[in-house]
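[scheduler] slot 2 assigned
[scheduler] job type: sequence-to-structure, two independent chains
[scheduler] chain ordering preserved from manifest
[runner] begin chain α
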Amino acid sequence: MAFAENDGADFAVGTRPMADINMIPLIDVMLVLLVVFMVTAPLLTHAVRVDLPEAASHPEVQHPDDLNLAIRADGALYWNDLPIAAAELPARMAAAAAASPVPELHIRADRQVPYGRVAEVMAAAARAGLDRIGFVSEPHSDSP
């Protein structure tokens, strides 16, 4: 449309062509998009919710039939405070799992032990049938 060439004969007396953009439809579309994004944004988060334990540990009552497995920083294994070879571990776990009731396995791993090694020990315990596993830690020095 060429408004500059029009002498105004096509328009009624006193009316001029509208030079402004009607913003109402644009605002409606924007609000609909805002609602869509507000509904879908929480669904797009991939965070895993994990209930982490508190930093301070509490003394646990030791039962005589509980098993203690220690993993030193150099990878040495200790079954109830006696050194064992890594090859003996599955057989000892299977024998312990055959007992009635099944004892709880307490793992004491050195801070320097890689997580992969602890995961291997836990997998071996699960394969053997020891499904009650606990981790032993030292309480903070500021804990009562």
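[runner] end chain α
[runner] begin chain β
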Amino acid sequence: MAFVIALTVLFGALSLFNIVLTVGLVRRIRGMDAGPSPVTAPPAGLPAVMRTAGGQVEAFESVTVRGETVSERFLSRGPVLAGVFAHGCSACHELLPGFLSLIESEGYSRDRVLVTLVGRPAELADDVRQLDPVATVVVEGRRGTVARALGVKAYPALAVIDAGGTVRASGPGIDSLSAAVTESV
């Protein structure tokens, strides 16, 4: 009889341990973003998020959310503010209101702002609604043509690009663009 009691106690202890591990795992999973795991902006001192100042934007062609074709010729309109944001990227979500404020405060017109949203169109519908009135918006997959042409390696990625397709300034935040934005408006 003592043997049965010992086995019951051991089984109960193992069951309790299993429950504790399961609860911990569930909490950890809930803490993760539900979307795809995009590469986020690297901490200071790590490689750039996209082409750096002096870099040349490669040729590209894509279709905007309005069905218009956009290519590297878009950059010939003068200094262009470019932004690349990904679905599921918390840093992108936090930066978007500041990016919209920058467009408004610096007086950028829609034909001088190019935004690339990375993800599925259904996931990005709210961002498209916010950005479409003030920017030329492209929605593409992770390795889309616009992001490749800009040399994007992490999100968010912002840049000011001159009429010749040369990057004036780039980085993961608005502060990375300060001097170039003021000069370009």
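[runner] end chain β
[qc] chain β: The chain has two domains: 1-32, 61-184.
[scheduler] slot 2 released
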